[in-house]
């Protein structure tokens, strides 16, 4: 096992119990492939069934003995990370907005979409923080502005987490299903504010953009453009009606591997460099002996080279207040004064566009809340009418009907009260906080740019 190379795989497993087709067969096939692989880190999404996690963990434990299954929401986040290196810490950050509890079919609110991460100590790099996430699904890149808001909130919160990790002196690798195409606003926020680099773009430079008159073949879309979802070659999306953007690329690139160096301490001649040398879409074939794919997404693997100084010496930061009592590679560094904001950051124009979506969602949430509370009031009035009216119908056969109607009205009233008042206020307050934060941040960026402009010769 080389410590100057790091290989990672990310895959959305589509593993929802009772809903995902051929789940058990596909999970078993995925486990077999992973057991025969030489990955150092594996990040999986939509692996919701704990028994499936245990099955995969047993299969890969020889090479990847360390694993974490992350819990979030009512049904679990579906996020899993396997590692060759000992896990020093594991955290999960549920996103503050994840859809509505009334949207049962989408299910994002119930699973608690989140950013999960592990921290491990690499013999050469030192601290490495690996993020695994699955952003809010509903609300496409081409939909109404208010539908984009929750995914934008996810992207902003994810970018802040990744940036903070780098400012603590850690290497950052971020992988998962981001449910967004590369040119979308959520991806711009993640790349620019967190300072993350797309490993696929680095290893596939100068990729031509297909024209509407000559779209790539499905095979070229995978090899050249990194398509991982909605591909005609996937058994679960073949024949599926596609959006214009998916038709243009013969699918969508929704799965990514990002990386960045630590922002503090500053890079020096003795600091190793994490450099992607190869990325490819994998698990594009059918499950052996079956007519279905491994998942409704393809997998994405990334191989990184770890460039070390020519003299072989490596600088791994040690704690500022205490001397290490063991190998410095396994010390948690403490950086009291991280580097200032990155020179490249989210543009004020991107923040303005984000604020437009969030403001539209804020107004939509307020209108929805008023509507739902009005339904609650109507249900209460109908309940009172049923209760009073039942005294005028002494015939016994009508009582069961009244009981069913009463139960239905009581359920609807309770649901509308919760959605319209409790959740409605939650969403409005969360949006208010993020809107104010982004407005402050936009002002700070503009002030910083003005200051830099005034100091320029």
TrEMBL record:
Subcellular location: Membrane
Pathway info: Lipid metabolism; sphingolipid metabolism; Sphingolipid metabolism
Recorded superkingdom: Eukaryota
Membrane-related topology note: Multi-pass membrane protein
Transmembrane helix in keyword set: yes
Annotated stretches, region: Disordered: 201-236
Residues spanning the membrane: 69-92, 373-394, 401-423
Similarity remark: Belongs to the neutral sphingomyelinase family.
Stated name of the protein: Endonuclease/exonuclease/phosphatase domain-containing protein
Protein's organism: Trametes cubensis
């Amino acid at each position: 096992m080389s410590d100057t190379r790091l290989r990672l795989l990310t895959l959305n497993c589509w593993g929802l119990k009772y809903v995902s087709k051929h789940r058990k067969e596909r999970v078993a096939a995925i486990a077999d492939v992973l057991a025969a692989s030489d990955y150092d880190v594996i990040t999986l999404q939509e692996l919701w069934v704990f028994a499936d996690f245990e099955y995969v963990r047993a299969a890969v434990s020889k090479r990847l003995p360390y694993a974490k299954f992350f819990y979030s929401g009512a049904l679990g986040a579906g996020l899993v990370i396997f590692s060759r290196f000992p896990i020093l810490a594991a955290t999960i950050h549920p996103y503050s907005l994840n859809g509505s509890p009334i949207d049962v079919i989408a299910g994002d609110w119930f699973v608690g979409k989140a950013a999960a991460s592990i921290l491990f100590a690499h013999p050469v790099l030192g601290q490495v923080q690996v993020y695994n996430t699955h952003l809010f699904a509903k609300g496409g890149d081409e939909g109404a502005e208010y539908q984009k808001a929750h995914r934008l909130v996810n992207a902003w919160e994810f970018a802040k987490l990744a940036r903070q990790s780098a400012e603590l002196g850690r290497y950052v690798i971020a992988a998962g299903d981001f449910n967004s195409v590369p040119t979308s606003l959520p991806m711009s926020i993640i790349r620019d504010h967190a300072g993350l680099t797309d490993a696929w773009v680095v290893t596939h430079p100068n990729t031509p953009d297909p024209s509407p008159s000559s779209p790539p073949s499905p095979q070229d879309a995978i090899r050249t453009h990194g398509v991982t979802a909605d591909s005609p070659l996937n058994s679960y999306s073949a024949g599926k009606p596609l959006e214009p953007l998916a038709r243009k690329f013969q699918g969508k690139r929704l799965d990514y591997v990002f990386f960045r160096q630590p922002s503090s301490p500053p890079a020096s001649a003795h600091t190793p460099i994490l450099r992607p040398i190869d990325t490819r879409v994998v698990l594009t074939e059918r499950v052996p002996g079956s007519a279905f794919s491994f998942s409704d997404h393809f997998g994405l693997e990334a191989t990184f080279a770890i460039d070390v100084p020519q003299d072989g010496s490596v600088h791994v930061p040690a704690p500022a207040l205490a001397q290490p009592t063991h190998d410095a590679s396994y010390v948690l560094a403490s950086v009291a004064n991280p580097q200032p904001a990155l020179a490249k950051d989210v543009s004020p124009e991107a923040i303005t566009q984000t604020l437009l979506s969030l403001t539209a969602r804020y107004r939509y949430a307020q209108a929805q809340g008023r509507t739902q509370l009005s339904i609650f009031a109507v249900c209460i009035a109908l309940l009172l009418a049923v209760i009073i009216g039942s005294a005028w119908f002494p015939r016994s056969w009508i009582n069961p009907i009244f009981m069913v109607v009463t139960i239905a009205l009581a359920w609807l009233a309770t649901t509308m009260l919760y959605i319209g008042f409790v959740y409605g206020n939650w969403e409005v307050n969360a949006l208010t906080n993020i809107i104010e934060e982004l407005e402050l941040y936009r002002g700070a960026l503009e002030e910083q740019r003005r200051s830099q402009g005034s100091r320029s010769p």
